[in-house]
Amino acid sequence: MRLSTIRKYRKNSKVRQGILSVGRNPIILLGVSLPFVIATATSLRNAAAMSLEYVVINFVTAVLSVLIAGKAPFWVRAAINVGAATVVMMLTRALITWMMPDISNYLGTYIYLMALNGMVLLQSEEAVRPGPVKLWPVMKGVVINVAVFAVMMLIVSLPREYLGNGTLWGRAIPAPVKLSGVQLPFFGFISVGFLLAFVRFTTKKIQAFGIVDGARKAANERARYTAIHVEIDE
Amino acid sequence: MPMESGFSSFFLMALTALAVENVIFFRVLGLNRQVLFLKSPKMGILYGGMFTLVALLSSLLVSLVNHLLRDSIYTSYLRAPAYFICVAIVYVAIYLGTRAFLPAVFEHIRDILPVSVFNTALFGAFYVTAINGFNIFQTTGYAFGAGVGYTLAVLVVYFARKRLAISPVPRSFRGLPVLLIYIGMLSLALYGLIGHGLPT
Amino acid sequence: MRIENPATAPHIHYHENTKVVMGDAILPMAAIYAMCFYYYGPRVLLLLVTSVFSSVAADVLCTLISGKRVNARDYSAIVTGMIIPLMMPASIPFHIAAIAAVFGITIVKHPFGGVGNNVFNPAAAGVAFAIVCFPVRMFTYPMPLETLPVFPDETLLQVSSPAFTLQLGGVPNYDFVDMSLGNFPGPMGATNILVILACLLYLVLRGAVRWEMPVAYLAVFAALCWAFPRDNMNAAQNILYDMMSGTVLFGGAFMLTDPVTTPQRAWAKAAYAALAGAAVFLFRRYSRYEEEFVFVLLIMNATVWGFDMVGERIAGIFRRKKFETLDDKKVQKKQ
Questions:
Q1: B131 touches chain A (CB under 8 A)
Q2: Complex confidence, ipTM
Q3: How far B48 CA sits from the closest chain A CA (Å)?
């Protein structure tokens, strides 16, 4: 096989692996932090506020979990993480209330409860892997996780706001029908379930395409090599 | 406060928290990995029982905090850290207490204690008691009801998973997605029957 | 794990073939639609067409997306499409019936495995969704024997049904003859009490529905109504009013008895129907909406698997007892 083809395939497969790693993070596989997507992704503004809070809290607790990794037993680490998340949450809540004063009425206690989301506990658990815990891989993971969360909130809240309220970002937009039941939690469960199924479907297709594509490329290479070999033999 | 009305408000609040504002089906709280991928009903009862115990004990402290913070201007800033401290006290007490005096029990609960304590369902119940200004009987009743409702809902989710495991679900939906859709349908049905009290 | 054609009970699949579905579900409902056409005019047929078209289109689309072959002989989507408008007012806008049908098929039928594998009844789920989204429009009904315009406007007289009166604690002012003939406002298909009872008899005689189910359901419901009558009427009045208003009878005949979402053994079916009757009675008194049958049915559908599992255990115990006593008798005969 030619080296240039190997290099191209490896680069493509890295891109593909990068795309596929999105489908392998804890939010999609384990359902971490899903309650917030289900309950609060009812309008774009809510989604934006909750995503902002999620980003801030997770970055801070990720850094903290790296700092205290291995220095305390798990049960203490969990408590420290949640405590730090609570403090960060209060600051972020102040920021969000200042930016969007009316948001607290809709979101109510969910802004407070974000300090206890599953990712905070997961980070204190993950810091128990063997070997030294490095900051950069943890940060890469956090970036992917919060990006997935924010995108999920956006995708779930867009139809829920449009169909449920006839608005987008609080501004009225002509909608064919107004289904008020879409903003209830049960529809959140259903839409998140469908979204997860769609993500799994797409990642499987990408994976299958990769396998098929790679196999086709390998077969082409083999055919070319065989043809040359046959030529030389003759 | 007369004890009879205290006990009746305890049970009334417990019933409200169990049914009308069920933690999983209406308020969508406390759905973590342990609940969604529960290993056995016994584990579910242990997890829910642990949660109910912690809820009951920390609700005593929380009602004290509510009483103290009721007239303060810094309420919204102090409430979250204060609740965290209350729960942390109970958490540490249970952890160290069982480790020292009840080692057999400690072995069972060691892994699930952090997850069942630092749970959105627990703190969610406390915020409800704060917003509505409950007294001590109502607070403890609500926390107890939330715990029992949470345990029942966890068992329902477990049996839902068992039911869906023998169904030819399409491959993309297998596992978590179809479980969420199932819970959503139950939430719809319960909403139509019992309804949902709070806006949050 | 995929189960392909399980040979032993409890069966999850119910293979509906054409003749069974055609005869057993569509014909009785066609009779009910004929009565609705008599009471409300041609709009009823337009609603039927809209609903059936939406559910079949959704079914075909979902089948194609999931990579399966479209089975032209599968009439389950048509049955769903026929049931949904019968639980709605005759003046309901067409898009609501269509939305309910699409919701039922795409969200409740296909993610759980498609035909024969759905856990929840798609028609009940669709109607439940419509009730939650449009509570006012789903519970205001036109008066019967007035031909409805195709697109009714605000000038159409719309009233509440006897179920609403009962929920408020009043006594409906329709007499029993009118109620049994369907001459009172209510869900389109659920008011024709005599026709529904005739269809139920037909289904039982055809063998599509085991007699234990409707008998257990109605007996338990009637017994509870008799034991705990409402405040301002006697037991007999309560039984008749509660059974004739709303979807209690219609649901018990067509939706509770759906073979895919019921237990397998006959006595498990009876126990299931009895529990459903008790639940419907309870929530008729204490639920937030005047029509609670669809929500109760969804919850009962979730418990079917429990009935099957417990039923198999109990049947196993009885089987073992039978074999044990059989052995004893054989030994005694030899001696």
A1: yes
A2: 0.89
A3: 17
